[in-house]
Inverse folding.
């Protein structure tokens, strides 16, 4: 799962789930069969994406404006006529009328199909995971103040996962979000290019009842973004409260609520809230945003195992550097867990580099280090992941990556993965 939503095992026959997905797919095809935002604005996926799902600078500004074009341009950029739910006259007589709004002219859905071919080095075995998963994305806006985004994911024919957020967008500097929260703040982007999850997201507390990849679950968050001097760079922030520990059957396991915060500061490049200058287009270098973004992240929570409590905290720092065709990302996280009177400290970090050889061809490599317990004698885990990402079309991506363990305990493992993603 890439998202921080509640994960649910389903016991209904798989044929029912597949039939439901098929019916949804029919509805999407009828709605012109392209990703929702591309359809709404009649633009290419590369307007917002470096290589989906990774966002470029304009894509981040679009997100920071509540899924709207920055600089007050949204109304003029919309090419798909929305359906009005009431007239503006209702505003003048409110509260004696329902406040008017609008909805998308066609169903705001997108579908992504993912397939993989895996080679396991230790077993010398090749496996075809086709399909690996299907994902249904939905997102859009209601008038100028309300936006939403979510995902339904069917994976391995046995798991159904979902996320959903709805938020009130006062302005780019202040959004109030309700729904699935937490995980996206643990890394500079939270949107990786590789099949392999970031090692930091697999850090667990001492009792094994919570990990960063699980996110905060359901909760509330205030967040925002503002441009810096001259309309360039700027800062973002987020403060949230979440259920925290949850599992396949429970949204919330204990009475405690987890707290988290994130802040970033960007120097140079397109403004975090965007503007009219430097916006990407189908003909510009959409992958260039000469800038440096520095960030920090903190998460504090409690989890229970039986009658015992595990109090844990996470501190993180990251950098996201863009220099012409080169993008370097680094993140370091420390976790402290206090369980059964024992305090354990963990450390994990990664550094990755992406280089655009051509707009459709990206060379990638990542180095990872994980020390689950800094106080014991177990060797830390290290690995390197080289990859090539190929954008066959703006909505069709292929990747080839090799996971090479470097530590003694994991040598002989790893393997080669080919993955293709088709979004429509």
């Amino acid at each position: 799962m890439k998202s921080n939503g509640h994960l649910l095992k389903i016991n209904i026959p798989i044929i029912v789930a597949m039939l439901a997905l098929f019916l949804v797919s029919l509805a999407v095809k009828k709605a012109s069969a392209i990703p929702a935002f591309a359809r709404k604005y009649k633009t290419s996926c590369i307007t917002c994406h470096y290589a989906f799902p990774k966002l470029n600078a304009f894509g981040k500004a679009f997100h920071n404006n509540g899924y709207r074009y920055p600089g007050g341009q949204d109304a003029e950029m919309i090419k798909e006529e929305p359906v009005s739910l009431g007239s503006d006259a209702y505003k003048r007589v409110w509260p004696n009328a329902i406040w008017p709004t609008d909805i998308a002219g066609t169903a705001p859905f997108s579908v992504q199909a993912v397939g993989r071919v895996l080679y396991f080095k230790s077993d010398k075995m090749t496996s075809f995971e086709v399909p690996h998963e299907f994902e249904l994305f939905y997102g859009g806006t209601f008038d100028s103040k309300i936006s939403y985004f979510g995902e339904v994911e069917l994976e391995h024919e046995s798991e159904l996962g979902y996320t959903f957020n709805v938020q009130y967008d006062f302005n780019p500097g202040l959004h109030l979000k309700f729904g699935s929260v937490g995980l996206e703040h643990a890394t500079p982007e939270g949107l990786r290019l590789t099949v392999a999850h970031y090692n930091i997201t697999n850090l667990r507390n001492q009792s094994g009842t919570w990990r960063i990849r699980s996110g905060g679950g359901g909760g509330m968050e205030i967040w925002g973004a503002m441009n810096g001097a001259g309309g360039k760079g700027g800062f973002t922030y987020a403060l949230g409260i979440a259920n925290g520990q949850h599992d396949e059957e429970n949204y919330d396991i204990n009475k405690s609520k987890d707290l988290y915060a994130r802040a970033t500061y960007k120097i140079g490049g397109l403004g975090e809230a965007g503007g009219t200058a430097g916006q990407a287009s189908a003909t510009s270098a959409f992958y260039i945003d000469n800038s440096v973004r520095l960030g920090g992240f903190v998460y504090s929570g409690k989890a229970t195992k039986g009658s015992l409590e595990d109090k844990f905290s996470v501190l993180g720092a990251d950098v996201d550097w863009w220099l012409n065709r080169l993008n370097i990302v680094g993140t370091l996280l420390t976790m402290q867990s206090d369980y059964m009177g024992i305090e354990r400290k963990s450390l994990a970090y990664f550094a990755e580099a992406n280089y655009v050889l051509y707009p459709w061809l990206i060379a990638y490599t990542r180095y990872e280090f994980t020390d689950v317990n800094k106080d014991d004698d177990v060797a830390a885990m290290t690995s390197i992941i080289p990859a090539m990402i190929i954008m066959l079309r703006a909505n069709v991506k292929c990747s080839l990556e090799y996971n090479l363990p470097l530590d003694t305990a994991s040598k002989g493992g790893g393997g080669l993965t080919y993955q293709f993603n088709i979004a429509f």
